[in-house]
Amino acid sequence: MLSPSAGVHWVLYVCVCVGVQGSDPSQYEMIQKMQMLQKRLITKTEEVVEKELLIQEKEKLYMELKHILARQPGPEVAEQLQSYQATLKDKTRQMKVRVLALGIVMCGIVDFLIRFGFGFSHVGRPICGSETGHGNCEDSGDRV
C-alpha cells in the first residue's frame, strides 16, 4: 500500500527528468502520465484505507449486535412462557373452585357443631347464610 509520503519520491524523480522534456517529448509525456497515475493511485489508496476503517467499524458493531441478540430469548422461550401462563391460569381456576368448596364444607361443619351443641355458646344459631349450612360464612368470628 502506498502512503501519501511515497509521493515525495516520484516528485523528485520527475524533477530530475524535466530536462528530458526538450530532448525527448514522448518520454516527457510518459513521465507526466506516470505522475498523473501515481496521484490517482495515492488518492485511491487513501479512499481504500478510509473504507477499510469504515468496514472494520461496521464489523465491530455487527459483532456487538450479534452478541446482544445471542443473549435474547428465542421463540421457544415465548412458546414455553405461553404454556406456563395457560397452566397457571388453569391452576388458579382450580384453586378458586377448591377454596369455594372448602368454604362450603367449613360452613357445614361449623353449622353441624353448633346445632348439636359441641361446646359453643351460641348453640342453635346458624353462622352461615342458610339453615342448611351451604351458604357463604358471613361472621368469621363465630367459626372454630
Q: Report how far the terminal alpha carbons are from each other.
A: 94 Å
Q: What is the averaged pLDDT score?
A: 79
List the domain count as a whole number. Answer: 2
Low confidence ranges: none
Give the tally of β-strands: 0
Strand content: under 5%
| Range of helix content | over 70%
Q: Biggest β-sheet, characterized?
A: none
- Molecular shape: rod-shaped
Name the structural class.
mainly alpha
Number of helices: 4
Radius of gyration from CA coordinates: 47 Å
Pattern of helices and strands: HHHH
Condensed summary:
This protein is mainly α and 144 residues long. The protein is built from 4 helices and no strands.
What features would you highlight for this structure?
single chain; 144 residues; mainly alpha; 4 helices; 72% helix; 0% strand; rod-shaped
